[in-house]
Amino acid sequence: MKRSKCIRLVLLGGLSAGALAGCNQSQPPAVNTENVYTNNYFVPGVGYYHAPFRAWYIHPYNHFDPQQQRYFFGGQWAPAPHESITNISPPTIEAAQQAQAQRADVPRGGFGNTSRSHFIYS
C-alpha cells in the first residue's frame, strides 16, 4: 500500500499540535538550592536574582536610578555599581523557599476563583 505525503503531514501536524498543547500545561521548574541562577534571572511575583547575594530583589542587579544617581544591588543603594566575579550561584535555603512561595507563574490548587466571588449589595 502506497501512502500519501499529505496524510503523513496531517498526522505529523496533529501529533505536534497535541505535544505543544501538553507543554502549555506543565509547571515551571521549582526554585530550589539545587539549581543555579544567573544575575537578573527573573521570577514573576518574586523579582530579580542577584547571584553574589544569593537572593531575589525587586530591582535588577546594579539597576541605576537616574533621579537618585545610585545603583541597586543586594537590597541596598550605593553611589557605584557592585563589582563581583560571581555571576551565577544557588540561592540560600531561605531565599529559595521564599521565592517559591511568592511565585506568580505557578498555578495554585484549591477552589479557583469561586472563593473570590464576593458581592456586597447596598
Q: Which percent range describes the beta-strand content? A: 15-25%
Number of strands: 8
Low-confidence stretches: 9-22, 114-119
Helix content: 10-25%
Largest sheet: 3 strands, antiparallel
Shape: globular
Supply the number of helical segments. Answer: 2
Look at the structure and give the mean pLDDT.
79
**Structural class by secondary-structure content:** alpha+beta
**How would you classify the quaternary structure?**
single chain
Strand order of the largest sheet: 2-3-4
Question: What are the secondary-structure elements, in order, as H or E?
Answer: HEEEEEEEEH
Distance between the termini: 74 Å
CA radius of gyration is: 23 Å
Description:
By secondary structure, the protein is an alpha+beta fold. The chain has a domain at 36-105. The protein is 25% helix and 19% strand. The chain is built from 2 helices and 8 strands; from the N terminus they run αββββββββα. The strands form 3 sheets. Strands 2-3-4 form a 3-stranded antiparallel sheet, covered by helices on one side. A 3-stranded antiparallel sheet has the order 5-6-7, with no helix packed on it. A two-stranded antiparallel sheet has the order 1-8. A hairpin with a 3-residue loop joins strand 2 and strand 3. The longest helix has 20 residues, at 5-24. The model is unreliable at 9-22 and 114-119 (pLDDT under 50).
